[in-house]
Amino acid sequence: MDPGKNLLSIGETASRSGVAASTLRFYESRGLIRSLRVGGNHRRYHRSMLRRIAIIRVAQRLGLSLGEIGAAFATLPDQRTPTRKDWSRLSSGWGRQLDRRIAELQNLRARLNGCIGCGCLSMKNCTLYNAGDEASDLGSGPRYLLGDTPPQRAD
Fold this sequence. Notes:
Layout: E1 7-9, H1 10-17, H2 21-29, E2 36-38, E3 42-46, H3 49-61, H4 66-73, H5 84-113
Antiparallel strand pairs: 1-3, 2-3
């Protein structure tokens, strides 16, 4: 079998993977995929990179950052394409992250449903109200929306 037959140009890889050529170059700059250089310094991607690109796209849709995806790929020997066993291990860890995110989103939705477009009829229980930045000791971000309990106030 001709080894060149397993190599795809950047245009072919973009077309087959459904991502722009600029995205492929970006993924490569982040170490998520790799290419070979042929005459004229043209990039050629091995067909196996299509699987890595597909995994990147799925992981991004799950809400994982490219850093998290890169860290997962770094656990693979010789930067190879994940096998079924590798995918099972990676997806199991990502599944736990996804479960946590789903719980956070459900909690956020439940809290926002009680907030009438933040035209709250009562500041007593508003999860967005943070007078005097009193939640600053709890950490960064919208602490009460993230699950911390606001102090009880008299209306």
